[in-house]
Amino acid sequence: MGNRAATGVAGATQNGGASAQTISAVLVDDEKLALDELSFLLKEFPDVDIIATASNGLEAVKLIADLEPDLVFMDVQMPGLDGMGVIARLREQGIPLPYFVMATAYDQYAVEAFRVEALDYLLKPVDKDRLEIAVERARKGVAERAKVAAAEALPPPKPSLQRTKLLVKSSQRNFIVDAQDVVYATIEGGLITVVASSLEGQSNYRTIEELQSNLDPDMFWRVHRSYLVNIHRIKEVIPWFKSSFQLRMDDKKQTEIPVSRVQTKRLRALLKL
Questions:
Q1: Which fold would CATH assign to domain 165-271?
Q2: Per residue in 148-161, pLDDT tens?
Q3: What are the b/e assignments for 78-92, b being 16+ CB within 10 Å?
Q4: What do you get for the CA distance between the two ends of the chain, in Å?
Q5: The whole model's pTM is what?
């Protein structure tokens, strides 16, 4: 299981004791001194939680996909895959983008940074006051996204027609599977794989959202952007990174599935964690 669950959302106190949502951040720079300097400056912002660092673009892509950070501070110029390339690769893979604050010693990259919709742009060496402006922009953006995500985390209304049978294609044959026998479904590269008690194959639905909308919402739960699980087939809840969880499913492989930050709250309520 390659993916790892995302970090949990916690409270932080700053600026005279006001409560604020923690911003999970990843730092990306091929120069260790630059990483250390930025980490030091960010200690002045207690609501910014540095959950990981990366020294190259390929490592950054994997960390962002696995950890789903709110914010990424990223150098523009890196060997191999540069900062702009990281954003392009994430888009190609259909991975939801965090907010990006780009950093470089050369101001000619500013236009390019904003072209890829970066939240802000910092010149090296990073100025503390300028960093504060970038962090404040991130706070506002993350708070707005949190409102939208909270609304999306609510279970969908029951469909007027709930399907109790699904068509699953396996070994060039079409099988009819009882919905209650489905353990989970996942999407990768635009293809939905359905894992049931007795077989594994592809669904003819185009998106996870479309599949979910035709199933009983009391039974099937979208725990992650790429996974829909049957809550009756959860075998174990595994504590994971930064107060998050993974679900071990009751299939032959005992697949471990990450629970996104947004859905962690529902998991706690559902299972009284």
A1: OB fold (Dihydrolipoamide Acetyltransferase, E2P) (2.40.50)
A2: 766 655 656 665 56
A3: beebbbbbbbebbee
A4: 23
A5: 0.59
